[in-house]
Amino acid sequence: MAEALTEAAKGVGQTSPNPTVGAVVVRDGRIIGRGYHTWVRKSHAEIEALSQAGADTRGSTIYVTLEPCSHTGRTGPCADALIAAGVSRVVVAMQDPNPLVSGQGFEKLRNAGITVDIDMDATSAAEKLNQPFVHFMRTGLPLVTLKAALTLDGKIAAPEDNSGWITSEKAREHVQSLRHASDAILTGIGTLLADDCLLTDRSGEPRSRPLLRMVVDSQLRTPLDSQMVRSASGDVAVVTTSAAADDRRIALENRGIRVLTFDGPGGRTDFPSIVEWLAEHKYQSLMIEAGSKVNWTALESGIVDKIYFYYAPKILGGLQSLPVAGGAGRLRRVDAMVFRDVSVHTISPDEFAVEAWLIK
Questions:
Q1: What pTM did the predictor assign?
Q2: Cis (ω within 30 of 0) for the bond into 19?
Q3: Given this model, what pLDDT does residue 161 score?
Q4: What is the distance between the alpha carbons of residues 39 and 21, in angstroms, rounded to a whole number?
Q5: Catalytic residue among 7, 46, 67, 351
Q6: Element (H, E) at 286
């Protein structure tokens, strides 16, 4: 199963809106076939592994990170292929949360006389590989991660000169792995104006579809000569309100930018509508890389599911340096947002990242 999980990891960023899946075929204690799924290649992991195994599949055992599918989508049912190949045992890391499958693959295999076992020791690792997919199937909404680079005292920007970086190059490289695993990324107009950011996936790894870059801009102040606009190729969306000027909307649309209008409280953009739109278009994950105000608005709106905070061994101090989440904040300590399943990841000898899920 560890080998199957390794295979599955090869498909990260290449399968959306499908899950990442890995499989290995074993006969007489020897691996005779391996496979993992990618959107471009279409074939599911089980089919890739069976194809590599060739004629030796009868009586074999296949280890798969996700329940074999039992329905016809872009390809035929993997459960049927396993039956036809004469596999005698299927070991799976987790049941598929997709209601089109969810136990039906197991049932079809067992009805054909194939032994099906669930490797509970591997379930957690398999779910982690497919966090966006699992979350999307269970909630109908994309997994939203708030990412930030902070000093030890929780600051993300100084009051005057903000040249340079808070975190190291190694930490910034690690961020690219998060971007690569995301379907969409969002920032605010303040960050765009200050940094002229691109927000691209610079991991160098192949993707199943372009990373959708989004800017929250209630007045459509996005510069037409910004890197974001100039580099747009059907992969940039600006989210605004009905108060924005029509001529600015037209100018952006003429440059291939998708302009979305979602009115929220106080004349601001409605964040829940952004997430719902992403769900409708089958974007299963969104990463927020923004400034203090947008971070707080996202948290307060309830769309954030988890955080990924990179901490550098620095302190800015002062009352004017911006905190990771500004805005009104919570006025009472008892009303503080609470997180669960906190994990600490070592990034470099002097840097770490905190990953945690928001309790809603």
A1: 0.94
A2: no
A3: 85
A4: 11
A5: 46
A6: strand 285-288
